[in-house]
From TrEMBL:
One of its GO terms (molecular function) is metal ion binding. Keywords: Metal-binding. The keyword Magnesium does not apply. It comes from the Bacteria. The keyword Metal-binding applies. This is 2-keto-4-pentenoate hydratase/2-oxohepta-3-ene-1,7-dioic acid hydratase (Catechol pathway). Residues 55-253 form the Fumarylacetoacetase-like C-terminal domain.
C-alpha cells in the first residue's frame, strides 16, 4: 500500500506526494503523478485534506444494516447528493457552525473513494482502474435544515456548508476495503463500528454506476455512505473516524464563541485550493 498526502509548506505553497518514513516524496499532482525529485520532511509541513475534489458525491442508504433499521428497500442504483468543494477540511481542522444555524449538527463516519483519472460511462473493470485510492470522510449535516421547508428537502444545503466535509488524513492506494471497518468516536466514546463489507454497492459498482450519470474527474471523492450509529455533535466536541490501514480523521466542532485563528483559516482556504 502507498500513502499519499497533501501539505501546506512554510511559504504557503501546496505540495502533494507519497509519504514514507516521515518524508514526502513530492509528485506534480494527483492527476499527474510524476515525481519532482523533491523529498521533504513532513515535520516542516502542515497537513491538509489529501485532495481538493471538484465535487464530493455522497451516498445515502448504501449499507444493508442501516437499510434494515430504517425499513428502507435496498436501492437499485446509488442514491446520492453532491457536497460543495468548499465544504472540505483536513484532519485537525475545525468544523464551524453556520452563524445562522443553532440546530443539530450530525457526524457520519465513512469510507471515501478517490478518483484517479477521468471516468465516464465506465464498466466495472474501467471503474476499478479509475480508483486511485481510499480515504476517510466525515459527512457532516445540519440535520434540522433537511426538512425545514416541507416542499423541498434541502440535502445539499444541509450538507454543503463550509467545513462540513472532513477528508483525510491520507489517501491509501492498494487498500483492502472488504476487510475494513469504520470506527467513529465522539469525545473518545465509540459511536460507530461497522464493516465495509456490508456495502450495498462495492466501490467499483459505485464508480461505474455514478459515471453513467456524471463525469468523475481526478481528485473527486465518492463518500460511500454510513451505517448504524450516526449521532449529533455538541459544540466543542471532537469526532474521530478511524479505518485501520488509512488512519484517523479527527475534527472538533468549534464552540460558538470560537472564531478560530489565522493558521486554521489559512488551512481551510488551502484545502479548497
Amino acid at each position: 500500500m502507498d500513502i499519499w498526502m497533501r501539505f501546506m509548506s512554510g511559504d504557503g505553497g501546496i505540495v502533494f506526494g507519497r509519504v514514507e518514513g516521515g518524508y514526502l516524496h513530492e509528485y506534480a499532482s494527483l492527476d499527474q503523478r510524476v515525481p519532482t525529485g523533491e523529498v521533504l520532511s513532513t515535520r516542516a509541513l502542515t497537513p491538509l485534506a489529501p485532495c481538493a475534489p471538484g465535487k464530493i458525491v455522497a451516498l445515502w442508504n448504501n449499507y444493508h444494516a442501516l437499510a434494515a433499521k430504517l425499513d428502507k428497500p435496498v436501492p437499485a442504483h446509488p442514491l446520492f447528493l453532491l457536497k460543495s468543494a468548499g465544504s472540505v477540511i483536513g484532519d485537525g481542522a475545525t468544523i464551524r457552525r453556520p452563524a445562522s444555524y443553532a440546530g443539530k449538527i450530525v457526524y457520519e463516519g465513512e469510507l471515501g473513494i478517490v478518483i484517479g483519472r477521468r471516468c465516464r460511462d465506465a464498466d466495472l473493470a474501467e471503474a476499478a482502474a479509475s480508483i486511485f485510492g481510499y480515504t476517510i470522510v466525515n459527512d457532516i449535516t445540519a440535520a434540522d435544515l433537511l426538512n425545514e421547508n416541507p416542499h423541498f428537502p434541502q440535502w445539499c444545503r444541509a450538507k454543503g456548508f463550509d467545513t462540513f466535509c472532513g477528508l483525510g488524513p491520507a489517501i491509501v492506494s492498494g487498500f483492502d476495503w472488504q476487510a475494513g471497518r469504520v470506527v467513529t468516536t465522539l469525545d473518545g466514546v465509540e459511536r460507530q463500528n461497522y464493516p465495509l463489507a456490508d456495502m450495498v454497492f462495492s466501490p467499483a459498482q459505485q464508480v461505474s454506476l455514478i459515471s453513467q450519470d456524471l463525469t468523475l474527474e481526478p481528485g473527486d471523492v465518492i463518500a460511500c455512505g454510513t451505517s448504524l450509529g450516526v449521532g449529533s455533535i455538541k459544540d466543542g466536541a471532537t469526532v474521530a473516524v478511524t479505518i485501520a490501514g488509512i488512519g484517523t480523521l479527527s475534527n472538533t466542532l468549534a464552540a460558538r464563541q470560537d472564531t478560530g485563528d489565522a493558521t486554521a483559516a489559512a488551512r481551510a482556504a488551502a484545502n479548497a485550493a
